[in-house]
């Protein structure tokens, strides 16, 4: 199979994605420079735009891996253009994930690409297609956390540091939640090819409810506490203090007003 089977126009980067990338760059600069009169607004726009960029890259990784595995139909579906509007419904793919970020500081890509699995041969290829998305979040998390674990924060403005820490938290939560072996999530897609036909048939009816089940569990205080303890431990190992992620979340929710606690670094 060759990627030449897809037209050049099917692989042209969407102006929508480029626009979101430009918003990320401009608001990132505004957060860094302190240019914005309300830093919280700049942080909100920066984190939201960067989060949507990561959503697009997550779904693109699924599609690109599927293309190289034999599904040439992903090009005609627009999955290789990085256009967020091509990844299923705009509400489910973009709006709801952003709402979940606002409500609880939890990152989980909500989009999906429909892969023609009948075109793909080999269980390892099926697993790799499912793993490609959350692995992109892992890579994004590495980039976001690099200044912290490399000790390269000298001269970095506090607001930008907070925003980067919160964005890293979103990527880490997205990677962990997506790798859960729950029907409907990528983690289940990784192991599904290795399950018996009977088990797959029994699990299939529950796939549409897997995401709802995970979020319902996360609203249980005890489960939520354990989950974020794990996240904080992972981020702490990467040099990100809870203070940074907390203040990043507070800045992100700019409509709540300024938080004096975050005006002084620990």
TrEMBL record:
UniProt xrefs under InterPro entries: Metallopeptidase_M50B, Rip2-like
GO MF annotation terms: metal ion binding; metallopeptidase activity
One GO cellular component term noted in the UniProt record for this chain: plasma membrane
GO BP annotations, alphabetical order: proteolysis
UniProtKB keywords: Cell membrane, Hydrolase, Membrane, Metal-binding, Metalloprotease, Protease, Transmembrane, Transmembrane helix, Zinc
Membrane topology summary: Multi-pass membrane protein
Family: Belongs to the peptidase M50B family.
Localization (cell): Cell membrane
Protein name: Site-2 protease family protein
Annotated TM spans: 16-35, 90-115, 127-150, 162-185, 206-228
Keyword Membrane annotated: yes
Keyword Cell membrane: yes
Cofactor needs: Zn(2+)
């Amino acid at each position: 199979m060759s990627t030449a089977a897809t037209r050049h126009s099917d692989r042209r980067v969407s102006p929508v994605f480029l626009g979101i990338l430009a918003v990320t760059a401009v608001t990132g600069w505004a957060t860094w420079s302190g240019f914005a009169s309300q830093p919280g607004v700049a942080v909100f726009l920066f984190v939201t735009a960067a989060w949507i960029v990561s959503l697009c890259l997550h779904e693109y990784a699924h599609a690109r891996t599927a293309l190289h595995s034999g599904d040439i139909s992903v090009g005609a579906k627009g999955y290789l253009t990085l256009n967020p509007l091509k990844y299923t419904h705009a509400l489910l793919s973009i709006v709801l994930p952003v709402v979940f970020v606002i409500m609880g500081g939890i990152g989980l890509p909500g989009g999906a690409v429909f892969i023609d699995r009948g075109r793909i041969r080999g269980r390892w290829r099926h697993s790799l297609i499912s793993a490609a998305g959350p692995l992109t979040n892992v890579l994004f998390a590495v980039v976001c956390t690099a200044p912290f674990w490399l000790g390269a924060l000298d001269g970095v403005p506090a607001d930008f540091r907070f925003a980067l820490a919160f964005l890293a938290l979103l990527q880490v939560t997205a990677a962990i939640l997506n790798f859960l072996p729950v029907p409907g999530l990528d983690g289940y897609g990784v192991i599904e090819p290795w399950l018996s036909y009977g088990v797959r048939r029994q699990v299939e009816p529950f796939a549409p409810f897997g995401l709802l089940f995970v979020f319902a569990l996360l609203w249980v205080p005890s489960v939520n506490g354990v989950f974020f303890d794990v996240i904080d431990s992972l981020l702490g190992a990467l040099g990100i203090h809870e203070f940074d992620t907390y203040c990043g979340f507070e800045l992100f929710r700019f409509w709540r007003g300024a938080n004096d606690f975050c005006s002084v670094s620990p």
